[in-house]
Design a protein that fits this description.
- By secondary structure, the chain is α/β, with parallel strands linked by helices.
- The protein has three domains: about 5-105 and about 145-210, Spore Coat Polysaccharide Biosynthesis Protein SpsA, Chain A (Alpha-Beta Complex), CATH 3.90.550; about 210-270; about 275-380, Rossmann fold (3-Layer(aba) Sandwich), CATH 3.40.50.
- About 40% of the residues lie in helices and about 20% in strands.
- It has helices spanning about 25, 45-55, 75-85, 115-120, 125, 160-165, 180-190, 215-230, 235-270, 285-295, 310, 315-325, 340-350, and strands at about 10-15, 35-40, 60-65, 70, 90-95, 145-150, 155-160, 195-205, 275-280, 305, 330-335, 355-360, 365-370, 380.
- Strands 3, 4, 5, 6, 7 and 8 form a six-stranded mixed sheet that branches.
- Strand 13 and strand 14 (about 380) form a beta hairpin.
- Helix 8 packs antiparallel against helix 9 (about 235-270).
- It is globular, with a radius of gyration of 22 Å.
């Protein structure tokens, strides 16, 4: 985030919803240019963002999830595009997950009873690119082109301050999920366009707040959609939608139970093994990573590394293809502070599938990753 703000005048607010991972102590005395708010309880996504919004004085507001990595030119590109058209109220960007796969929620349509029906019937899965049967993720729109869309993701919402003065911030009745759908709807109703901007790509790890295969996730997500429909579509539509939601939650609960049994069985059959690692970073960070790996006996301690100052050139992708084919790593660890984030994102999208990407930040004693957007991430820590 700081690298993306280097060439623009920016104020940064971080609101913590009562984390239990020692975040407050870790950040104490660090990042003097960041305003921290430490809540004594989990107020939810909407309230936390609204707290930061109250203190913001800039002409443009970016709501950004903490589980994101931005390329260095992301904000400059986005702001330049946003300023071109006075009718644009808000923008979202192209997002990939921690394995380099495109996130469909980068561009969405508004939820409706028909949308829910198509999803429940399996028609959306059968015709993911259909304008009729897959309207929620707008599968018929090219992910590599700019589009006017209905819904932007709360993970990255760049909004003109003048627009928020008309619409207001997030509706605090939405604790988690649905708040971005609601705000996108109000922006559109106020006469402004929501734009999906494809010229920059960020990493959004996903799955870090609620396990997506869980019944709790289904209740939170579908409950938020139900609140949205009641608020904006009227009683008759809301009544029909509520019935579909009950079916959806029941179905999700059944599938969740089956998946849990299957995963438990798989875990029993999975023998412990060693992962071969490929590290991209300078010598200091590589030594630090090796130290962390060696203290975890389930990780193979013999690694191969690439110095980014030598390899991140025009031929980076070709160079890494050769290295990956030679090493055949299970894990590729990026030393984020040594790398150009834009190059890192490009590599993730172009390298072969099946690599488990992890990330190390200089000055930390851990390696983190999130390969699957449906589940929470994982980490390897020192000590």
């Amino acid at each position: 985030m700081l690298n993306a703000c280097k060439n623009i005048e920016a104020e940064i607010f971080v609101v913590d919803n009562h984390s239990a991972d020692g975040s407050k102590n870790y950040f104490k005395g660090r990042f003097s240019n960041v305003t921290f708010t430490w809540n004594k309880e989990n107020l939810g996504f909407s309230k936390a963002n609204n707290l930061a919004l109250k203190g913001a004085v800039g002409k443009y507001i970016l709501f950004l999830n903490p589980d994101t990595i931005l390329p260095e030119d992301c904000l400059e590109k986005s702001l330049a595009f946003l300023k071109e058209d006075k009718n644009i109220g808000a923008m979202g960007v192209r997002m990939i997950d921690g394995s380099g796969l495109f996130l469909k929620e980068s561009k969405r349509g508004f939820p409706s009873s028909l949308t829910a029906l198509y999803k429940l019937s399996g028609l959306t899965a059968l015709f993911p690119n259909s304008k009729i049967f897959a309207p929620y993720y707008l599968g018929h729109l090219d992910q590599h082109s700019n589009h006017e869309v209905d819904v932007l993701a709360g993970a990255f919402m760049l909004i003109k301050k003048t627009v928020l003065e008309i619409t207001g911030g997030f509706d605090e009745r939405f604790f988690m999920y649905g708040e971005d759908v609601d705000l996108s709807y109000r922006i559109q109703k106020a006469g402004f366009k929501n734009i999906y901007f494809s010229a920059t790509t960020i990493i959004h790890f996903k799955g870090e707040s609620t396990r997506k295969e869980s019944l709790n996730y289904a209740r939170l997500f579908y409950g938020a959609m139900n609140l949205f429909v009641k608020k904006h579509y009227g009683n008759i539509t809301a009544m029909f939608y509520s019935q579909l939601i009950k079916i959806a939650i029941g179905t999700k609960g059944l599938l969740s139970s089956i998946a849990k049994l299957k995963n438990n069985d798989s875990a029993k059959k999975m023998p412990p093994g060693f992962n071969k690692c490929l590290i991209i970073g300078d010598n200091k960070d590589v030594d630090n990573i090796n130290s962390i790996l060696q203290k975890n006996i389930f990780i193979q301690t013999v690694t191969e590394s690439i110095n980014p100052k030598q390899s991140l050139l025009a031929e980076t992708v070709e160079h890494l293809y050769t290295k990956v084919n030679k090493v055949q790593p299970k894990e590729l660890i990026f030393c984020v502070n040594d790398l150009i984030a834009k190059d890192m994102i490009q590599l993730m999208e172009q390298l072969p599938a099946g690599i488990d990407y992890k990330f190390h930040f200089t000055g930390t004693h851990s390696i983190v990753g999130s390969m699957n957007k449906e589940t929470t991430g994982n980490y390897i820590a020192e000590g």
